[in-house]
Write a structure and sequence with these properties.
Length: about 425
């Protein structure tokens, strides 16, 4: 009878009726053993099957966008008949049937999930959903093979959960955690056993799901500090797909000690390529700002790295791909962690997460860095800037992600992807900079 639903609030739900049914009456229902179910009972059974944890008082029966009936459920949908059907259940799975107009963000928010959690529960690799699709919202099964795990340096809830084939939400629920913060030495309950670790050979290693710096260092016979030093890491944060050096990298002396700035160059990139810090590069050239101009000749140390480092485009594409994992995290003024971000805090977090050594700044501060980029020449990872509060005064920044879209921390929807042609944002667009 019903092909989908949408929850308005904890007391009201919309049920979308199959438009191909031949009749609508108080006795409308689908045949079962030669009888028709009463309309209200059909509603109760649907609610019990699809949203067992919801107890609404009002049901709006919809035909497309039109309300054809409103039903009041005295005492909600938890009738004794329906309740009895679940007495012998040992596990419960909550589903949501996608209705027209639904989005992953809206559904996740409705059930107090992040978009990443919702995608993980349903093994989704993209953001596309369609009306009638059934999404798993939560699963609650009795724990099996429960074990304990002691947190080591570099661990995150995500890496631990991946090691044990769990979701972060399951791990948090099992340990009654309300935040993503864990401490070295903390003992966590886990389900199942982690895969046996194998020694890492070779001079580089690509980070896999569930890895941490500690586990990689241990398998490569290194200390965490050695591994961080080999890769110029300022924190223990790593990401899936990142290539780590496991041995010292030889350097070669380059004839001549100058470099000519090209389009897209930044101080950070030039310094990194010549094994220098930005401060050393600026001091050597008596620079007082981070601005560069194409064709400018600057002095460099003469030592250039020869390892197969990911090129700039790959680093930024990895950053952009990774940024989608944080869609739905709420806005928090001054926030720089997964608890919440503001726009510049998100930029700083993603730069640090992907090894881009750019100091934390304000949106206006980032606008003074790098080289300008025309809108037609935008590339994934470029920073795009907006003047929302006052004309000409930069107040918002995000990452261009390709396909004429950008991602940023917004006060209304948290981390969100929006079109550059969006009617709201397009009128405040100021320009773009390439800072790496």
């Amino acid at each position: 009878m019903f092909i989908g639903h949408k929850i308005e609030n904890q007391k009201t739900i919309r049920l979308y009726i199959d438009p191909h049914l031949p009749e609508f009456s108080s006795e409308l229902g689908t045949p079962e053993h030669g009888k028709k179910l009463h309309f209200n009972e059909s509603i109760r059974l649907y609610l019990k099957e699809k949203v067992p944890n919801l107890n609404p008082n009002f049901v709006k029966v919809m035909m497309g966008t039109m309300v054809i009936a409103t039903v009041t459920l005295a005492g909600g949908n938890q009738s004794s008949k329906v309740e009895a059907a679940s007495n012998n259940q040992t596990s419960v799975q909550t589903n949501h049937t996608v209705a027209s107009g639904d989005t992953l963000f809206g559904i996740a928010k409705q059930y107090n999930l992040s978009v990443s959690q919702l995608k993980q529960l349903n093994h989704l690799t993209g953001d596309m959903i369609y009306p009638g699709q059934t999404l798993v919202i939560s699963t609650a099964e009795p724990p099996k093979n429960t074990a304990t795990y002691t947190v080591t340096p570099g661990d995150t809830l995500y890496s631990i959960a991946n090691s044990y084939n769990m979701s972060v939400d399951q791990l948090k629920q099992l340990n009654n955690l309300t935040t993503n913060t864990i401490q070295v030495g903390q003992t966590l309950q886990v389900i199942g056993t982690a895969p046996e670790s194998t020694q890492i050979t070779g001079v580089t290693y690509t980070v896999q799901p569930g890895d941490s710096l500690y586990s990689i260092a241990e398998r490569a016979n290194l200390t965490v500090n050695q591994l961080m030093k080999l890769n110029n890491l300022a924190s223990t944060m790593i990401y899936v797909g990142q290539t780590l050096n496991l041995a010292d990298t030889p350097q070669q002396n380059v004839a001549g000690a100058t470099y000519t700035v090209k389009e897209g160059d930044t101080l950070y990139r030039i310094a990194q390529n010549h094994n220098m810090s930005v401060t050393e590069l600026k001091n050597m050239n008596n620079l007082s700002s981070n601005s560069l101009s194409i064709g400018q000749v600057i002095k460099v140390s003469g030592n250039t790295k020869t390892e197969s480092v990911k090129n700039r485009e790959q680093v930024l594409q990895d950053l952009v791909n990774d940024s989608y994992n944080f869609i739905g995290i709420p806005y928090l003024w001054g926030g720089t962690t997964t608890v919440g971000f503001d726009c510049s805090g998100f930029v700083s977090f993603m730069h640090a997460r992907h090894g881009i050594d750019i100091p934390r700044n304000t949106s206006a501060g980032y606008f003074t860095m790098g080289t300008p980029v025309a809108k037609a020449n935008l590339e994934p990872g470029d920073l795009v800037f907006f003047a929302v509060n006052n004309t000409g005064r930069i107040s918002h920044v995000g990452f261009y992600v390709g396909n004429n879209n950008f991602i940023s921390a917004t006060s209304s929807k948290g981390i969100n992807v929006v079109s550059m042609d969006n009617s709201y944002w397009s009128k405040y667009y100021v320009g773009a900079k390439r800072v790496y």
